[in-house]
Amino acid sequence: MSRFRYLKNAASEMKKADPQCAITERALREWVAAGILPALSVGCRKLVDLDTVEKLISEPIQPQEKDQEKIRRVG
Description:
The chain has 75 residues and is an alpha+beta fold. The protein has 3 helices and 3 strands, in the order βααββα.
């Protein structure tokens, strides 16, 4: 069963499990805003699945090469 928590509670749950955890509420908010972390909207608050957060931390997304996106000047 999924363990959905509000962003603030998700950060505190992670701190309980690992007191040295550096993941903050702000980091979770930025990941949700960037589309890295899926979230459910409940009013103006966001719910995240703790299992998804843990998976994201254990298997980080590799950034894509920026050089492919640039248009280089010719001549």
